[in-house]
Amino acid sequence: MATERHGPDPEWNKDRGEWMYNWISEGGNGMLGCGWHEIPDMCVDFIIEQYHRFGIPFTKEILDVARVGGMAAFHWADSGDPYCLFWQCSDVEMTGDWSEYTYELHDLYGHNYCKECDPENLETFVYVPGQCEAVFESCLARPGLEALPNCVGEGIRDLLLGEYNGEECWDGIDSATEIALKQLCTDPGSSVANTRKMVAYFELAAWAGFLWLAGPLGRDFRREHNPIIDTAMAYGEAILVEASIISPENFRKIPRAPQSCYRCGVPAWCVELTQDGNVTRYVCSSCSNYGMPPVSPMHCGTLYCKYSTCPHNPFFAHGTAGIYAAARANGQLVGMARNGAGGLVLRGEDQRMIGGV
Predict the structure, then answer these.
(1) What's the mean pLDDT in 86-93?
(2) How far apart are CA 42 and CA 37, in angstroms?
């Protein structure tokens, strides 16, 4: 429902931050709230199954390899890229609705309160049934970090190699585990372990760990450890506002452009935030001055507006020629001509006068 905005783009549409990172910072525990050593046993079992499925030798002596690889996947989704589970991957998807609709908060904390969300501080999520199953099946048939969506595999590989936080995969295992892994990765006739094979053990565990986390097997874990996912799956959608997760019980999704006038729906440069008791909404200059005579035939309310595409503009009926009509009526050049201005000044290196002495 894209709507033409009358006037320059607002700041929230230029350089918008990502509130998931702010939310993680507020909690201090990452998106999933789990530490390095809290990978579920069911996930470890799934990882071990993948070694057996591909005929890769695996012994109990290298169990920590499976854990470390899986934990790398969890850590990446937890704080390395907390958005990776929310884009064409699991069953909850982030959307662009924050830029298309107005979200109005109400009845927060039991108070008779109503406030429109600032789109700069808003992120929107929706439940997509069946998506995680489809991604899971697709990736399960294509083993390897490269097969994971959203370039997740590249981030996890950097994490395993120590390029993300300086801690390599080897740092997570003891000497006995490393010796056992070297024995499995030493080619016949060689006395030196194949380092690439050793790394591949960690990568397979990380690939399987992420599949478990993002797919149907990890659904209950995701819901338990992430309130965005739980709220979206329970209500169909959820929003994140200034590090607070809100369900549809406490917000209204209004088919009106963000920061547009709540009375007429016009998204324009002149819209301002207004307070009426416990209600905070945006209103345009025309509607805020409704019933009052305009300052002049060139004004909408109390402001002079050059954006003739706005239906409130006095020159709206002129169509595309409205810009010219508005400028003829009250443009800078008209004012200068009427007041006998001495010419235009070029700002910059060339300070010559145009049309004057």
Answers:
(1) 92
(2) 14
